[in-house]
Design brief:
heterodimer, A: 290 residues, mainly alpha, MetI-like fold, 11 helices, 74% helix, globular, B: 286 residues, 2 domains, 13 helices, 80% helix, 0% strand, cell membrane (chain A), MetI-like (chain A), Raffinose/stachyose/melibiose transport system permease protein (chain A)
Amino acid sequence: MRNKNRGKDFCMFALPGMFCFFAVVMIPFIYGVYLTLTDWNGVAKVKNFIGFKNFAGVLRDGQFWTSLGLTFKYVILVVLLVNVIAFLLAYLLTRGMKGQNFFRAGFFTPNLIGGIVLGYIWQFVFSRVFVNVGEATGWNLFGVSWLSDPTKAFLALVMVSVWQLSGYMILIYVAGFMGLSEDVMEAASIDGASGWRKMRSIVMPLMMSSVTICLFLTLSRAFMVYDVNLSLTAGAPYGTTEMAAMHVYEKAFTSRQFGLGQAEALILFLIVACISGIQVYLTKKKEVEA
Amino acid sequence: MKQTAIGGNKRKAANILATAGLIIIFLAYMFPFLMVVINSLKQKRDIIKSPFSWLYTIKGLSFDNFVKAFTQMDFMNAFKNSLIVTVSATLLVTLFAAMLAYYIVRHNNRISKITFALMVASMIIPFQAIMIPLVSIYGGTLNMLNHRITLIFMHTGFSMAMSVFMFHGFIKGSVPIALEEAAYIDGCTRGQTFFKIVFPLLKPIISTMVILNALAFWNDFLLPSLVLTDKKLLTLPLSTYSFYGTYSADYGTIMAGLLLCVIPILILYIILQKQIISGVVAGAVK
């Protein structure tokens, strides 16, 4: 009976979802690999096959490597800061103090709002509010807008990203802390473990599965940062805060070098995939079960 | 006995210190939002003079900024567009992903296995690695850009892999096959079994996926910016972007506009806070 209905079942249940997935993800992905071998400019009817010239072009595109280097710096700072801050705050938020649910919900708020709006809010804070503080107090730190100085604009971008992402990671670490078994903690106390010792030998190993998730999420999000980059600095001053994802966008849609842009996008994808893969492998190895 | 008392005092002191620290950090986190709220009611001159308080304003406080932002952003239209796109894409992806996942779990054939493996693998592909060919296929060859339905279709496709993965795990773990067999014996067709028996059982995972997908669709900027350029079709993040481009020096109006974008989500968050938080955690941990 089931065999007779096989085709009908497939069409009814599997086909709609598969169609959407293949048409939007798989086919463009494969077509994208082909695009890297052409010199298409986005408008022309003809695409000339030019072999691996685009990849040679990527090697020569100095700006791509600058933005990639900047992205690496950004990712390292963001991943470290987000996870340290979120871990500590989550620890504080699971000690049973009053109103901890309110705090958790509050810290998460930035994640409900799109990166574009967040970037604009912070642009106002950096360019008006902080400058105003500088004028009132005479602090040089806030004398001129952070966004007009390359180093400080970069730090501003890091700050906003940390602010946004840490609220999300707090929730995951909180879930991890809540999952720690009371028995194990009690046993450690009875055995005479001090607070620090407990943290290092009991809490940390048991929290490794949360750490794996949080590192993975922050890594992949930080590498692909675009919205906040666009609305906070838009690459300014003079393209010094242009991250890799934004560079790819500019290459394809502003300079109209689709093949080159796609080659850079694929290289970026491979880098992210490798780094995330290594990270998950390394942290998974450290996971233990209570 | 004595030792616990000392420990208790120490602990109390540490707790007070931790709470105080936490409140300070929390206020620092909320500071940008506070600035937006305060300055949305003020005029430009007062904002430049002092962005910090409602006191000492020359022109006073008013809702003028909101009126201006509301009309200039064409807020109702953008809101409507965002709502249509988010609701339809969320419904479609929930339905299609649940059905596809159900098919994959119950039919252990080659198509299921390959599709599922491809989907799991595709989850690491970032959107930026697909956007260029996506635009060249749908913009060039098919000429389908600038339609709401195209955006809805693309949102559906992009969130399919993750959604199928989540539904797959849930169906495999907690939908007993015996229930379906009983339904067949009672004369249900495949479709009836799915919609009357299986789908209702998926409620917990459906609410998780609806929250995750709807939030992502509502806030997405990059994909809609590639698909939609017609002013009438812009979603909220897109119209915020173009609005900011035009009025970036008019601080009061900008702040009011940004606040208008945030308010609908905040209201929803206040109502559904528990579900949203547990949905986000469940989505990440799996």
